[in-house]
């Protein structure tokens, strides 16, 4: 390992390497390495998903992490966040997650909701997804009713 970094355009310029980031995960695998298995890593992944919800890799890493830590409530929240991100897309992935983690999701009371939302997609405004750990939910109490503007009538 080199202790210094040289600039190929200016070989006389030598600079020390920057230290690794303390907040990032240096892996691109779907499973989290054993030395990163902690609730702090789960919080990091949740924050990253909040900033970039379309990154499915982070979602699967978060699900894998909570499964490894045997935390069913956080696992359920991670699966719900994945389903909220996918919407009506990714039916096969949503079915696979539901089948793979069915027992854990059943114990936290999410199987019926996820089965019901398989074809139509999960709604982020549904109050049932407002659970601790779900970061993409925006629950609304009551009915969501949007008004549309009408064109003013022409009077001659």
Outline the structure in words:
The protein is mostly helical and 156 residues long. The chain has one domain. Helices cover 40% and strands 6% of the residues. It has a two-stranded antiparallel sheet. A hairpin with a 2-residue loop joins strand 1 (5-7) and strand 2 (10-15). Helix 1 packs antiparallel against helix 2 (56-68) and helix 3 runs antiparallel to helix 4 (91-100). The mean pLDDT is 79.
Primary descriptors:
single chain; 156 residues; mainly alpha; two-stranded antiparallel ribbon; 6 helices; 2 strands; 6% strand
Principal-axes geometry comes out as extended
Q: Provide the β-strand percentage band.
A: 5-15%
* Low-confidence parts: none
Radius of gyration, whole Å = 22 Å
Number of strands: 2
What structural class do helix, strand and pairing data support? Answer: mainly alpha
- Give the strand order of the largest sheet, numbering strands 1, 2, ... along the chain: 1-2
Report the average pLDDT across residues.
79
Count of DSSP-assigned helices: 6
The structural domain count equals 1
Percent in helix: 40-55%
- Sheet bearing the most strands, described? 2 strands, antiparallel
Spatial gap, N to C terminus: 83 Å
Helices and strands, in order, run as: EEHHHHHH
Concise structural overview:
This protein is mostly helical and 156 residues long. It has helices spanning 39-51, 56-68, 72-86, 91-100, 102-107, 111-116; strands at 5-7, 10-15.
